[in-house]
């Protein structure tokens, strides 16, 4: 018997554990190969494990489920997870995909499992149209527009468009623009959810780069991918898990 695999992506740990328990009970032959608490973790697990099924929360920090679904490129069957929202439910009514509502109910989960199992013999459904409909119903998120940074004894106002990259320090973050390095008293983890994920990419656990500041990528003598910047001479190392961000370059 073929063993199918799945990844769970849900940012709320308690709900993720509840979903894990219910899926394991209702689909005992399914192998859960990973769990993600945000969009970047989900993409990493998808790249590493190539799951057959993805249980995907629509609203997650950093990168929402719609962006994750778009970047998967039809590599797995998706069951979307959403809080009750009439707009989202209407978008699913005539589609080939299924969804789960929070809080989870066994009957609804069992129906979703049955539907996805029936589709496993064929390719994942096309989702571009559905993603557009769902995106129209998501609440608008206001991303960070500027930050106050320390330069010596001065405080500098830096607009996010001027940031080339950010790098983690010990309890603070280094901010690099074209011609300055500044400090802010926030950690990189505190900043990541406030920045627009379409522009600011986590390329390493200690580095976030402004995609608009990237000139290209190269490899060092050890084969590690590095980012070249338009306005600065240094190169930034990309972790293997995040190399997918540059595959189209």
What can be said about this structure in brief?
This protein is an alpha/beta fold. It contains seven helices and 15 strands. Strand 3, helix 3 and strand 4 form a beta-alpha-beta unit.
Q: Distance between termini? A: 40 Å
Task: Give the uncertain stretches in residue-range form.
Answer: none
Q: Could you tell me the strand content as a percent range?
A: 25-35%
**How are the strands ordered across the major sheet?**
2-1-3-4-5
- Write down the CATH class of the largest domain: Alpha Beta
Shape: elongated
- How confident is the prediction overall: mean pLDDT? 85
Q: If helices are DSSP runs of H or I spanning 4 or more residues, what is the number of helices?
A: 7
Helix content range: 25-40%
Number of domains: 2
Biggest sheet statistics:
5 strands, parallel
Q: How many DSSP-defined strands?
A: 15
CATH superfamily caption of the largest domain? Response regulator
CATH topology of the largest domain: Rossmann fold
Features:
Rossmann fold, elongated, OB fold (Dihydrolipoamide Acetyltransferase, E2P), alpha/beta, five-stranded antiparallel β-sheet, 2 domains, five-stranded parallel β-sheet, single chain, 7 helices, about 30% helix, about 250 residues, 15 strands
